[in-house]
Design brief:
The protein has about 280 residues and is mostly beta strands. It is about 5% helix and about 45% strand. It has helices at about 100-105, 155-160, and strands spanning about 5-10, 15-25, 35, 40, 50-55, 60-65, 80-90, 115-120, 125, 140-145, 165-170, 180-190, 195, 205, 210-215, 215, 225-230, 235-240, 240-245, 250-260, 265-275. The longest helix has 8 residues, at about 155-160.
Length: about 280
Amino acid sequence: MNIRYYALLLCSGLAAQTIAIVSTFDTGAEGWSAIPLFQHRPTGGNPGGFLFMDNPESDPVSVIAPSKFRGDLRAFDGGVLSFDGNMLRRGAEPDHRFWRDDEAALYGGNYGTVTIRGADGSTAKKDLEPGLPPVGSWKTYTTPFTAQAFGMSLPQWLRLLGSVSSITVSVEAIFGEEQQGFDNFIIRATAPPLAITTASLPPGEVGQRYERAVLAAGGAPPYRFVVTGLPRGLNYDPAPPFVVGNPERAGAYQVTITATDSIGTNASRTFPLEIAAAT
């Protein structure tokens, strides 16, 4: 499964690590688009930058996630989806349920509605704000990223997540003029911590062929390995990851295997390796 991970928050000790796809908008729009157009503002968000929409009442306002939130998201099943919203200004009385069904289907529904579409045409929706958003203050909206939360069976949900074609969030709250802020869109999942899973380096003998797999698990694959402390004649071969060769010198060695996953997390483990003299 080719999953892309874009941020990492580590818990302490041996706790699982939280892997997340994140847009904070601190340095730009990060590939997001909107109906209608928006502005990126470098300050005033929650905190830092945010997306600003000034809607005089034309099209319903939705923000559309970029490519990093598309593709195979099955690894995030059971996690959490969240974003921050702020109705910066409103110029009319609210009418939270004014959209026709066809408009809601096209634009994602009313304020706080997250719509996930799959490549097979399937759709899942979740309204995170049944009422109206507060005016003039940031609010964090959160939902479990699960089949139950989005009203689907587990097979339907996993099929949808296997090939996500778009994610949109409606930030339309009233029928009339309004200004909306959008910040900190995150989908996070909990994964086991990265660890070296090679059990041991068995003893070898000078002049005899030696092979041992280098293994890791957890974190965000794929992994890169660095192996240090090998005796002369043994080398690390990355494809596939093996310690291989014909040792040339007897002795007791300390070999360290370090794995780095796709988001830069490291894990290391040191193994004793005994090489006996040729018999």
